[in-house]
Amino acid sequence: MLTDRAQRALDTIDGQTLEEMRALRDETERFMQRYKFGMDEVITKLSILREEFNQAHDYNPIEHISSRLKSLDSVIEKMSRKGVEPSFEAISRTITDIAGVRVTCSFVSDAYRIYELLVAQRDIRVLQVKDYIAEPKPNGYQSLHVIVEVPVFLSTGAHPVVVEVQIRTIAMDFWASLEHKIYYKYDRQVPQELLDGLTDAARTASELDTRMERLHREVHGDPRAKARLRRTSIA
Known about the structure:
Elements: H1 4-11, H2 15-56, E1 62-69, H3 72-82, H4 88-94, E2 99-105, H5 108-119, E3 125-131, E4 144-154, E5 157-169, H6 170-185, H7 192-220, H8 223-234
Parallel strand pairs: 2-5
Antiparallel strand pairs: 1-2, 3-4, 4-5
């Protein structure tokens, strides 16, 4: 139900303007829907890989897959902050994280393995890679960020959609989740001692990843080495 004030404002709008507003609303919904479909396409690809590993291999590198679609308010806020022209074309070209997929793995080597398997697919086009595992952010944040373009096939034809994929270990994900909660609680004005504690915790998480990777290789061996051995034997 509209408030009296909103109803009075609506009553002052002429029919043509109202139709233009409805058209803009419908176009905006279609625009956001494409990102949702693009996100679903990437999730399907990753889910197929996870199921195939469960069925055909003795080890599955994918622990968890999650996703999120930015709200329209968040998109508008980012447009304002970055000075993006208010057009769908400019938004598509400039804002690359409207649709996001996160893959959580057990080990660092798994993150790179999933990345290689995903980008090797023919209909995936890699636009940008930010390797915060090899080069962590100053605060210790680690993750492999991959901006990809995937085709979404609709009744109007194929539409390329940009999706951000983040691939990280369980330890990295736990740290990032904690950092997000702390920044939210303090409205991004985090006391320095907490920032220092987060940076120290990031180092601890990285050391844990290294130790767990070493233990994993001691138990299961190096999967890449095994693959090379199998190829050599076949040859």
